[in-house]
Amino acid sequence: MDISRESRKDRNNTDGLILLAAAAGLSFLIALLVVLFYAPREQVMGDVQRIFYFHVAAGWVGGLAYGIAAVCGARYLWKPHESFDDAGHAAVEIGFVFTLINVLTGSIWARPIWNTWWTWDPRLVTATVMAVMYAGYLLLRRSISNVESQRRIAAGYALLSFLSVPMTFLSIRLFRTIHPVVFGTVMQGDAMTGLSNRMLVSLAVSLLSFSFLFVVFLLYRIRLSQLSRQVEDAQWERFEAEKA
Amino acid sequence: MSDERDVMSRQTSKPGQDALSSYVQVVGAVAWKDALTNSRNPEALLVMIVFSLLSLLIYAFAFGLEGEVAPGIGAGMLWMTFAFAGILGFYRIMASERESGCLDGLLLAPVDRSAIFFGKWIGGFLHLLLIAVVLVPALAAFFGLPLLLWKSALVVVLFAAGYAALGTLLAAMTLKTGAREILLPLLLLPPAFPILLAATQATRALLMGAEWHALAIWVRVLVACDAIFLTLAWMVYDRLLLE
User: Fold this and answer.
1) Is the pLDDT of residue A161 over 90?
2) Is residue A69 part of a domain?
3) B positions 172-201 inside 8 Å of A (CB)
4) Counting one residue from A and one from B, how many pairs have CB atoms under 8 Å apart?
5) Alpha carbon separation from B22 to A95, A139, B14, B34, B106 (Å, rounded)
């Protein structure tokens, strides 16, 4: 009786997730169409510039994910509950992938525009340091076997790692850099740089669809943690029963 | 009326002062204990110092340096060596407690855990300063770099404070991991990035004979990072080591 109710609730959850995933996929498709066909062709860079909409959106999702991980980490340290750990872990895993997408798309853009795949610009370095830091977070988790300590220490490291996020965001505003500053019209050399209205709309659509996609991934990843814990518990129960 | 309030405030401030002085006592006790055990077994410190001198020699022939060294390379050599030699010391901060079976005693002590952090931090900080006392003059002498100035001492002290804070915090975090020695550098160096950058840039400016204002921004970055690292460690340390 109890079990059937549980499984029915589970199925409802899964149905909801599938619907959300379909909506996120649709929004991503819309973003793709908007970026490719609605967004205007950039005057100097041409079509290459279109990668910018995904580059910024991936970077934004990275920052958002690490912010969520830091908040979850703080919540876990002050009020331990496994759901905060699930959410924090999920956020870092997904944020890490989006950070890699951000660095990779930046590199692809830089090849025709800066004439090199990579340059030792402050923004590139800080973004990569941020990625390495969260790779460290994931390795740290793997290397601790005691679940309690794993969660607590991961929460602490998520808080510490978050320092790299404002550092990355501010690096192009504090240091001399060749990375474009997009938000707010800024004087670069003699020219005013900024985005036209259609570009802003395209960017907004891209940001929204990436955020939506992130939320769906996050929910799925949290659910995966919950399910794997259930499986572990069930295995443990069976083991105990067989022993007795 | 004002007298009354005076008496009240004196009464309320007294337990606070007691708490503060006992907190400082704990910090001092932990730092003193570590200094004493380290002075009786100075191998770790000696290894760090010899390692840092060895690194200088390796850099010298790896980069093919003879005579005068460019400021950029000199500053880089100083901070790379310092950072790597420091990591060797951070392993010891908590591992020595565990090996000698003193960790449980330390954790069972009825004191604020953050006081343990500050005690350990003082130990790590002093270790770094002792390395610097040998490393910086050696670099200055070997490569003819004008490093023996109060300004470079200030940069070293500020860097050591922040680096020791990170090292002490991460030594506690990696205590429970299966592979703590390999993981520590990976976890330590990325958050140390801003202070490493600031220290390197400040030293480079110093070696190129820049004025104080060129250094000031990096000194400010170092002070800000030190404050952030120490505050964060103070807030989370007792929650990381619960058992």
Assistant:
1) yes
2) yes
3) 173-174, 176-179, 183, 186-187, 190-191, 193-194
4) 67
5) 44, 39, 12, 18, 16
Q: How far is CA A53 from the centre of its chain?
A: 15
| Residue B67: inside a domain | yes
Residue A24, in any domain of the structure: no
| Domain-located, residue B2 | no
* Count of structural domains within chain A: 1
Q: Coil, helix or strand for B199? A: helix
| DSSP three-state, residue A187 | strand
Q: 3-state DSSP call for residue A179?
A: coil
Mean pLDDT of chain A: 87
pLDDT in tens, B190-213: 999 999 999 998 998 888 887 888
Residue A11 lies in a domain: no
pLDDT of the residue at A77:
92
> Taking CB atoms and an 8 Å cutoff, what residues of chain B touch A132?
186, 190
Closest Cβ opposite residue A157 in set B178, B187, B243: B187
User: Does the residue B85 lie in any domain?
Assistant: yes
B124 touching A (Cβ < 8 Å): no
pTM above 0.90, yes or no: no
How many alpha carbons fall within 13 Å on the CB side of residue B211? 1
Backbone angles phi, psi at A187, to 5 degrees: -75, 120
